[in-house]
């Protein structure tokens, strides 16, 4: 085992302490013995670090400097203290924001013998309501970018001794912290163990995009299927509720949302407001969302099918047929509006908040009356695409909204090319995609419809007390 000076030099070289301005290497003398403190500036609470070091100077006497264990017991008042047995762990802890102390033990310590203290104070934003998960009722707090605080938000709601959390680390460079949460007496333990083993076996340099990188590492195939593989939520109340149902919650450091596993199409369509209102109201909101989701996929292909086969349209629905002059084929009008709406959406994301409302109004006018007057689009194309767009915004899940958009475009294209056969072929293809989509858990995306569980299926459609 190297002596104190060699250990100090190893840490200093591996951390590039002489080259990096934010790596602090502070030399100390404790009761005549050499010591050194390493920490990352900006990730520790300075006032707490000063108090702990002052206490260390005062109480680190000869009887406390026998071993790291005795020093922790006699001279360190901090609760979160651990003894490090090897240099790799010491380097990882320092780069994670922990303060690490190395003391000259006079060759009494057979292992590396460093002490890590958790005095982290990560820069973070306030816990406000989730921007993409707003509800009319319920709590107004949301997840933040700190995995420790996110775990605490779940602990605040689940005061059960069976609630377990497992910390993992992924990425040779990023060393991203991941926490898997579950209820021991309700979750599928085999699924939990399999999931933890799969996360541990991930071989990657870094999780560059945090949660999305983790999901793509766990699901290495079937990405041609547009349906989501997991459900995201930025709400701690939603995450704790599904956890108490027996699901698994995954938290990734630097991500202000949680991953919920397993997930079905019915879980993705669920929303917190379904449960914050009485059963009758919650059931109505849920069924409305289901119907709107289906119509958002079918409305433009059905309209195009009616225009291509006017003789099959019943008299009571003949008002949907096109009566205006058409300069651009309806199919291409619908595609242009699809892309144009996404262009407006992207523009609004990069527009200053003070101008967002103005951009929305101008964009709506430009893509409606002005476009109709110029002869680009017909009134019908604008109307039906407006409905499809608003329907997409009614969905609680952003990924599902884009999935339905891709399905709508595919169904529209098949209808245009193959007419009635194309429409029904597209419907069949959608069902095939639903059947073949597999989530991270490996279970059916259509559960509890396939495999059929009548009791669970009824709960998916109706909100009970």
- Report the order of strands and helices: HEEHHEHEEHEEHHEHEEHHHHHHHHH
Net shape: elongated
Cα separation of the termini: 64 Å
The total of beta strands comes to: 10
Largest sheet: 5 strands, antiparallel
As laid out across the biggest beta sheet, the strand order is 1-2-4-5-3
Helix-and-strand structural type: alpha+beta
**Overall pLDDT level:** 88
Report the β-strand fraction as a percent range: 5-15%
Work out the helix count. Answer: 17
Share in helix: 40-55%
Unreliable stretches (pLDDT < 50, length at least 5) are none
Backbone CA Rg? 29 Å
Features of the shown structure:
alpha+beta, 48% helix, 17 helices, 5-stranded antiparallel β-sheet, 10 strands, 465 residues
Question: Would you give an account of this structure?
Answer:
With 465 residues, the protein is of the alpha+beta class. The chain is built from 17 helices and ten strands. Strands 1-2-4-5-3 form a five-stranded antiparallel β-sheet, with helices on both faces. The chain has a five-stranded antiparallel β-sheet with strand order 6-7-9-10-8, sandwiched between helices. Strand 1 and strand 2 form a beta hairpin. Helix 1 crosses helix 4 and helix 12 (330-349) packs antiparallel against helix 13 (353-366). It starts with a helix and ends with a helix. The model has no long low-confidence stretch (mean pLDDT 88).
